[in-house]
Amino acid sequence: MAETFKELERAERDSRWPRAAILDAAHFNADGLMPAIAQQHDSGEVLMMAWMNREALDETLRTGRVCYWSRSRGKLWRKGESSGQQQHLRSASLDCDGDTLLLRVDQTGPACHTGRRSCFYVALEETGARITSDPLIDPDTLYQKP
């Protein structure tokens, strides 16, 4: 664990640290990525998990519009750029190890590419899996190009 995060363990509430120093000490994986969990700021609903690199995180903090790193596209992915279903950042936090982000967001419409509010709609139960929600928007409609 980075020495900076060891220091933060004993830091007093409301103490301030330079953002750049914290992000420099944060742990991005070998691909330069960190998992980011998006949570609806007012309800606490977990919406999705995606990946961020330093550039995506910097853009998100600078603009307030959530930006991820798309591993499949190999480029920055501004949430909602093709669906219109944007995430606006309310707050961002690192976990105690500096290797996972929690983004509290204001999500417009569905967060999931399936048209559902949350990506976490497959409940694993003792005897199988159960779908827990219906799409809010048909995914074929969600991604139609005008």
TrEMBL record:
Mg(2+) binds at residues 95, 97, 99. It catalyses: 1-(5-phospho-beta-D-ribosyl)-5'-AMP + H2O = 1-(5-phospho-beta-D-ribosyl)-5-[(5-phospho-beta-D-ribosylamino)methylideneamino]imidazole-4-carboxamide. It comes from the Bacteria. Residues 48-121 form the Phosphoribosyl-AMP cyclohydrolase domain. The keyword DNA-binding does not apply. Pathway: Amino-acid biosynthesis; L-histidine biosynthesis; L-histidine from 5-phospho-alpha-D-ribose 1-diphosphate: step 3/9. Binds 1 Mg(2+) ion per subunit. It holds the Pfam family PRA-CH. Catalyzes the hydrolysis of the adenine ring of phosphoribosyl-AMP. Belongs to the PRA-CH family. This is Phosphoribosyl-AMP cyclohydrolase. The lineage of its organism: Bacteria, Pseudomonadati, Pseudomonadota, Gammaproteobacteria, Oceanospirillales. The gene is hisI.
